[in-house]
Amino acid sequence: MNAEDLEVVEREIRRMEGSLQTFLDFARPPKVERREVDLATIVDQTLDLTRGRAAKQQVAVRFLKPAQPVRFLVDPEQMRQVLLNLVLNALDAMSEGGMLTIELTCVSDAIVQFEIRDTGPGISPTLEPRLFQPFQSEKETGVGLGLVISRRIVEDHGGTLTARNHTAGGACFTVSLPIQKMRSANALSVAG
Question: What is this structure's pTM?
Answer without folding.
Answer: 0.74
